[in-house]
Design goal:
The protein has six helices and no strands. With 144 residues, the chain is mainly α.
């Protein structure tokens, strides 16, 4: 039996993944701050202090920030699709595809951070988001 509100699954999935990335960020950063003796006591010197830390330590945190950007549109369009009752199998599959692509983007960025691959995954997620937006627009027009 499929869930009565199938778009909630992808929304919950991406929220859960965002929390995973937040934990990952802290799990990497906090020990690094101790290891590299980063002094955060003077706000005027924090940016200089952070230069002690290798760039790869910040990858998970940068990805966490990215999960606060484009996915906000995803959550908004899921709400619209849900409100329009546009929850057919193709729409739900696209929503899950978006979540999978964002997880893939996170894994690429937080691990080896190959920029060209990361961009391709990001672009693919943007195309899926555009398709979801198009489906919402068509559902809205057809119900008018």
């Amino acid at each position: 039996m499929s869930p009565p509100k199938p778009l909630l699954g992808p929304a919950i999935g991406l929220c859960a993944w965002t929390l995973v990335m937040e934990v990952w960020m802290y799990a990497i950063r906090l020990p690094a701050y101790r290891k590299y003796k980063v002094d955060m006591s003077d706000p005027r010197k924090v940016s200089q202090e952070l230069k002690k830390v290798p760039p790869h330590i910040f990858y998970a945190g940068e990805n966490f920030t990215h999960l606060m950007e484009q996915p906000t549109t995803f959550f908004a369009i899921l709400w619209v699709l849900h409100a329009l009752n546009a929850t057919d199998a193709a729409t739900v599959a696209l929503a899950w595809m978006y979540v999978a692509l964002r997880v893939a983007h996170s894994l690429v960025q937080a691990t080896f951070n190959q920029i060209d691959l990361r961009f391709k995954v990001f672009a693919a997620s943007g195309m899926v988001l555009a398709m979801l937006t198009g489906r919402a627009a068509m559902a809205h027009v057809s119900q008018a």
